[in-house]
Known about the structure:
The chain is α+β, with helices and mostly antiparallel strands. The protein has three domains: 68 residues, 2-Layer Sandwich (Alpha-Beta Plaits); 235 residues, FAD/NAD(P)-binding domain (3-Layer(bba) Sandwich), CATH 3.50.50; 179 residues, no CATH class. The protein is built from twelve helices and 23 strands. It has a seven-stranded mixed beta sheet with strand order 14-15-18-13-21-19-20. Helix 3 packs parallel to helix 12. The longest helix is centred in the last third of the chain and has 25 residues. It is globular and about 75 Å long. The two termini are 41 Å apart. The model has no long low-confidence stretch (mean pLDDT 93).
Amino acid sequence: MLILNDLKVPIDADDDQLRQIIEKKLKTRIRTFMIRKKSLDARKEPHYVCSVLVDVKNEERLIRRGYKRYLPEQLDPPYQERKETCIIIGYGPSGIFSACRLHFAGYKVIAFEKGKRIDERARDVETFFKTGILDPQSNVQFGEGGAGTFSDAKLTTRIKDKYIDYILDLFIRFGASEKIRYENHAHIGTDEIRKIIARITDHLIKEGVEFHFSEPVIDLIMNDRHEAIGVKTSKGRYDADHILLGIGHSAQETYEMLKRQGVHMEKKDIALGFRVEHPQSFIDARQTNALVKEANEYFLRYKGEKGVYSFCMCPGGIVIPAMSDESSIVTNGMSYAARDSGYANSAILIQVFKEEFEDGLEYLRSIERNAYDFSGSYRALAQNIKDFMNNELYPLQFDSTYPLGTVLYDFNRFFQPADLQILKDAFLDFDRKIPGFIEKGIMIGPETRSSSPIRINRDETCQSVNTKNIYPMGEGAGYGGGIMSCALDGIRIANAILWKHEQIQQKR
Ligand SMILES: Cc1cc2nc3c(=O)[nH]c(=O)nc-3n(C[C@H](O)[C@H](O)[C@H](O)COP(=O)(O)OP(=O)(O)OC[C@H]3O[C@@H](n4cnc5c(N)ncnc54)[C@H](O)[C@@H]3O)c2cc1C
């Protein structure tokens, strides 16, 4: 296999044309090719710059002519049967990717997930969206795949890391489109990611990984040196050498259990706000990127005394109820692979500094409960953006896609006066960038679960700073935000365990 870098490709070139470009460059026929990277060069005449892998018959001759052989870095850990047991608590992106890596390296892996497997979970979520009957153990936050399962499954991250390709390759191996490797702002869609995650789990089960769904970990078993040596679940006790905490940011009782056991944690800054929703046709007409053929996205950022930014945009998606606790309201967004709902939604969040609250979890829960008390149901709070700006309250200009309905609410009551001013300045700025953003949009909220208000601190070996054998990871530990960064963190933790193992072996 050869690798060709910096290949200039016209914007509208299809696979046949790309093949011709490669053959012209190599001056020979090729068997197959695969795009590895693709980035847009928008200067002067816009075109793509691609990196492609090419399979040719006469590879040696081309190498003699100066072309390079593709030598992928071997990132899989060396397999070796190991005696140690790793318990993984929580099967979201950090849990999934740490489980894969530790299993591939030869550890005994046991995964506990308080929620259900995807098919059953999807039925529970659907029931909730239709009837408003919430299962606090099986919902948008909890179950196989974690919080990212009912999402847009955007795979964007600003992190540069060699394991990004490793993660994407694993998604592709279990059914994702090859396109996620090279598309800007790649996304999988909730319908596809559900199938992919279920296939990964089935594969791991077949290979001997032990899974316990609907079995929450309710306590840690500690020795007298304050080292964790196992877990207690709703069904039994299990010994472990390493315990990975991939618990996400929504399981309050898990945080309480960790607190009770004295695992060190601290407050961290958060952000909160609401979703905004616009007709997708409005966003498409305003976005200048005519190169994007499907639903357009936007990224908005305003720097006032506090930052205000758009987050987790779902083009062609729907606004969803994302609560895990009864009598509370939390919004979020989700898209199917086709992104064809006709509406665009995104969170608009304002920073909240840790000095502004005592207990972050309780602070967020009280907002969610107050929203429910106002609504008297799971209907979300909603207002036209222009009415928010003018301190008015008129009926919504269009129905939100939020499936449980909305009640009119004046978001001017929601924020402190100083934050209110910053938010209104931010909207004016967004309206300059996307004219009509205020006039054409509605707000639905509250959106409170964009990040964890807690960091479970770890040391240089990636263990809890005061509880040996506990490895906090992912969003709930404050070490990730989003599918890719949490998956990467899961790999980082698995690597730390592998590295510890190597060191012990070397000392022997
Ligand atoms: C609706 C929605 C849409 C999103 N869209 C995107 C997107 O498009 N792109 C993106 O990058 N990110 C998105 N995110 C964020 C992303 O999903 C999270 O950042 C990511 O899932 C966090 O991964 P994690 O492994 O840290 O934890 P989670 O995915 O939160 O998983 C934690 C798991 O731990 C389990 N658990 C907790 N306590 C226990 C216990 N005591 N015992 C057993 N199990 C336990 C929970 O049930 C849960 O399944 C979205 C989130 C939501 C809610």
